[in-house]
Q: What sequence folds into this?
């Protein structure tokens, strides 16, 4: 059964956030809120967690996993960003955007797009997510919590706990999330290509 943690959306209880971070470090798969919708997350090198995300969401090996980072210092360890792209991303973050970029050698091979050697990265604008990332001191390997065959993600923590009780280890809840996933921008060629229109405004990239 998944453990359920309910925290305040503006002032999340530090002890509770610490407990969730400890669970992630132990190899767990957690459902957690972001500034777009709920996501599934685990540690970067957690192969079992990656396999479980693929299984829950029915994903193939072309799916771009996302490294959810606390800040640019962290993001820069995992992707190659030139000055022009850096400025464009900097202006849009933190926010509801995922950026696809060439990965550094810090990213495990099983996370990379098999042909492009790219990975998704993002810096969320969400108090609870930021608190968890600060406590972890490393990115969360993540994917939107969107079930196979469904058009919208689940928005209630209690619903996620009820439905995914035996396939995730913990649910972190801070109230309802949105239903719109992040906007995805592919910068792997050096130019902005809008892959998915979502919660983030695309005007700045058009």
A:
């Amino acid at each position: 059964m998944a453990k359920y943690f309910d925290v305040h959306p503006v002032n999340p209880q530090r002890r509770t956030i610490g407990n969730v971070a400890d669970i992630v470090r132990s190899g767990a798969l957690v459902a957690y809120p972001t500034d777009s919708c709920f996501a599934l997350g685990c540690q970067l090198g957690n192969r079992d967690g990656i396999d479980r995300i693929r299984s829950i969401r029915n994903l193939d090996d072309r799916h771009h996993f996302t490294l959810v980072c606390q800040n640019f210092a962290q993001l820069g360890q995992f992707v190659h960003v030139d000055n022009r792209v850096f400025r464009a991303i900097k202006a849009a973050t933190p926010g509801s955007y995922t950026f696809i970029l060439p990965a550094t050698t810090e990213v495990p091979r099983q996370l990379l797009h098999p042909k492009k050697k790219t990975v998704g990265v993002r810096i969320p604008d969400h108090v609870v997510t930021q608190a968890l990332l600060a406590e972890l001191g490393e990115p969360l390997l993540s994917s939107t919590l969107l079930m196979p065959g469904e058009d919208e993600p689940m928005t209630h923590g209690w619903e996620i706990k009820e439905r995914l009780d035996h396939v995730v280890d913990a649910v972190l809840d801070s109230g309802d999330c949105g239903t719109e996933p992040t906007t995805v921008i592919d910068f792997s060629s050096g130019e902005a290509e809008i892959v998915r229109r979502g919660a983030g405004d695309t005007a700045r990239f058009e």
